[in-house]
């Protein structure tokens, strides 16, 4: 397999890890737009990662700092994952040796990144990860930024540098790839994914009917 195929090949549960950056209560208060959407997106992303047993590294500032603790809904999902309290002054998570070592220890070269702020810490961390040879996927709707112009420019900057911008739902779809119940692993993950989509994706409230119809026809 060529390096090019490996680099641009599909995300799978075996080849990617997740890095969450600064989803702290204090930081989310200064994000532009609907903060509920940001919370919804990052919780959906974290739940997806747990269904597939993806390695998750959480880079955050200390709970007693001005940025406060992690978003409670997110903490409930990732409370047993590796969390690193880095220095508040550094915008680039990978400048922290503990974060960098934790990411390297996953053994994965495809890294899914989401965080706050898109135009600050996510941008700086993504550029560093690309420089270190990682293939980076930035989850736009699990992140939040200062204002629309800054977010757009940051996403453009990251894409031009080589990152790929995705949503949590496109990531979920790529990881699942099919609903083949003859495949034990696909059958194992399907139920959890349907619950995530039903809980977090507007307009998919009827997915359970679709899921159970597919499941029944596969028996």
From TrEMBL:
Domain Isochorismatase-like: 17-168
Pfam family, one: Isochorismatase
Highest taxon, organism lineage: Bacteria
InterPro entries per record: Hydrolase_YcaC-like, Isochorismatase-like_dom, Isochorismatase-like_sf
UniProt cross-references to PANTHER family, sorted A to Z: HYDROLASE, HYDROLASE YCAC-RELATED
Protein name: Isochorismatase-like domain-containing protein
Organism, scientific name: Paraburkholderia acidicola
